[in-house]
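> forwarded from #structure-qc
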C-alpha cells in the first residue's frame, strides 16, 4: 500500500516527469549517435562545457544515446506505472461516483454547497424547476420529493483519457528505442544499393530487404547559388521491377514500408577525362581538400608535366595549377586542358539518410489525443439538488469549474 501511495502521489509523478524533461533537454543539446572521436573533439576533457560536461561524462552516462539508455527507459516505465496506478485508484472511482445519483434528503446538506437557496412553494414550482433544469441539459433523477441532476460528465472522463494518451506516448517512445534504425548511403547516379551501412540499430530491429536505385541527382540554383538538391529514386522488387519512383529533396522524403529516405548530403567522386589522341575516356578520383570545405582536387599527368585540378561545389568550371602550385587558368567542362586531355564531366554522388521508426505514428496519435482530451478536461462538471419539504424548496449546486456560469444558471432558475 505504501508503494501504491507513492506511485499515485502527484508530486512523485511530477518529479519523474521533470527528470524525463531534463534528460530530453540533454538529448536535444548533445548530438546523438556520433562516434567516440566526435565527442572527444567537441567535448574535450581540458575544456568541459559549464565546467563539467565533457566526453567522459557523456559516454559514461550514455548521453550520446539518451533515449535508448536503461535509466531513461526506466523513468518512462515508472511514469507509466504511476499513471496507470493513479487512473485505477483515483480516476475510475471519481468517474463511478460521478455517474451515481445521490439525493440530499436534509436541508442541512445544502449548507455545505457553494450555491444554495430556499424557495417558498408556489403552484407548479416543482414542474417549472424541472423544465428549466432540463433546458440547461442536465441529466435528471427524481425520487418523490427529491431531485438530482448533473451535466458535463465528459469533464470527468477526460482526465482518464489524458492519462491514457500519456501512456500511449510512453509506449510509443519505448517501441522507438527497441525498433528503429538509421543508415547513411553515399552513391553515384545509376547505382543500386541495399540497406547495409546502419549508423544505429535498435535491439530488436531487423533490417528490411529493400532494393533502391539512384536514377539521377541534380541541384537547383538561385541567384547563382545552390538552393536545393534533388535525387530521383526507384524502389525495385527482387526481380528488378520498379515498384515506386519519386524525386526527393531536403524535407521531402520518399516513404516505403515505414522507411523514410531523406536527401541529406552530396559529394563529388571523380571526373571523366578524354584522352584526345587515343579517343578514350578515363575516370579520375577526386579528393576533398578538407572536411569543412566543398572543394576537391585531382591530378593529371602527361608526358611532360603534372597538372592539379581544383573543383569547387558543383560548378561547371575548375582551376588548373602546374606541378609547382602556380595558377595557370580557369577552364570550363569540355575544354582542352592541354594538347592531350579534356575534362568531359563531373561524377557527383548523392547522400541519402534512411530512417525507420514505427513509433512515430503511435506518438503522433498520443499527442493528438492528448491535445483534445486536455481541452475537454477543462469542461465543468456540475451537479444540482432539489429537496421539497412542506412549504419550502431547497435548491443547491456545485461545480468543479465555471462557478460564474453556475451562478448565472442559478439566477435563470430562480426567475
Amino acid at each position: 500500500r505504501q508503494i501504491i501511495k507513492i506511485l499515485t502521489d502527484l508530486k512523485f509523478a511530477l518529479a519523474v516527469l521533470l527528470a524525463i524533461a531534463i534528460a530530453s533537454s540533454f538529448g536535444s543539446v548533445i548530438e546523438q549517435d556520433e562516434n567516440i572521436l566526435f565527442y572527444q573533439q567537441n567535448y574535450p576533457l581540458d575544456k568541459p562545457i559549464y565546467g563539467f560536461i565533457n566526453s567522459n561524462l557523456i559516454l559514461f552516462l550514455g548521453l550520446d544515446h539518451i533515449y535508448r539508455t536503461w535509466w531513461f527507459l526506466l523513468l518512462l516505465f515508472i511514469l507509466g506505472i504511476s499513471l496507470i496506478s493513479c487512473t485505477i485508484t483515483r480516476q475510475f472511482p471519481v468517474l463511478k461516483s460521478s455517474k451515481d445519483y445521490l439525493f440530499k434528503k436534509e436541508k442541512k446538506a445544502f449548507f455545505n454547497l457553494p450555491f444554495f437557496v430556499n424557495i417558498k412553494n408556489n403552484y407548479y414550482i416543482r414542474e417549472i424547476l424541472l423544465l428549466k433544469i432540463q433546458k440547461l441539459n442536465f441529466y435528471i433523477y427524481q425520487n418523490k420529493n427529491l431531485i438530482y441532476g448533473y451535466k458535463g460528465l465528459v469533464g470527468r472522463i477526460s482526465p482518464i483519457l489524458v492519462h491514457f494518451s500519456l501512456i500511449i506516448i510512453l509506449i510509443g517512445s519505448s517501441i522507438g528505442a527497441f525498433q528503429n534504425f538509421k543508415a547513411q548511403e553515399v552513391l553515384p547516379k545509376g547505382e543500386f544499393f541495399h540497406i547495409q551501412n546502419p549508423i544505429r540499430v535498435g535491439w530488436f530491429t531487423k533490417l528490411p530487404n529493400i532494393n533502391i536505385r539512384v536514377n539521377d541527382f541534380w541541384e537547383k540554383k538561385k541567384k547563382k547559388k545552390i538552393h536545393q538538391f534533388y535525387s530521383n529514386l526507384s524502389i525495385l522488387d527482387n526481380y528488378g521491377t520498379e515498384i515506386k519512383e519519386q524525386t526527393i529533396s531536403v524535407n521531402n522524403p520518399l516513404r516505403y514500408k515505414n522507411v523514410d529516405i531523406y536527401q541529406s548530403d552530396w559529394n563529388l567522386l571523380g571526373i571523366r577525362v578524354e584522352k584526345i589522341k587515343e579517343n578514350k575516356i578515363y575516370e579520375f578520383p577526386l579528393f576533398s581538400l578538407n572536411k569543412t570545405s566543398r572543394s576537391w582536387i585531382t591530378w593529371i599527368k602527361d608526358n611532360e608535366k603534372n597538372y592539379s585540378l581544383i573543383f569547387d561545389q558543383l560548378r561547371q568550371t575548375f582551376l588548373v595549377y602546374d606541378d609547382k602550385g602556380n595558377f595557370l587558368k580557369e577552364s570550363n567542362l569540355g575544354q582542352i586542358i592541354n594538347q592531350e586531355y579534356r575534362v568531359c564531366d563531373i561524377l557527383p554522388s548523392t547522400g541519402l539518410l534512411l530512417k525507420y521508426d514505427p513509433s512515430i505514428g503511435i506518438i503522433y496519435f498520443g499527442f493528438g489525443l492528448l491535445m483534445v482530451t486536455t481541452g475537454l478536461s477543462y469542461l465543468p462538471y456540475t451537479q444540482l439538488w432539489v429537496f421539497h419539504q412542506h412549504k419550502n424548496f431547497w435548491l443547491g449546486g456545485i461545480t468543479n469549474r465555471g462557478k460564474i456560469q453556475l451562478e448565472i444558471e442559478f439566477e435563470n432558475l430562480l426567475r
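QC bot note: The mean pLDDT is 84. DSSP finds nine helices and 20 strands in the chain.
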